[in-house]
Amino acid sequence: MDHLDRITIEPGKCGGRPCIRGMRIRVKDVLDLLAAKVTREEILEDFPYLEDEDIDAAIQYAAAQIDHPVLSVPPQAA
Question: For the chain, N or C: smaller number of CB within 10 Å?
Answer without folding.
Answer: C
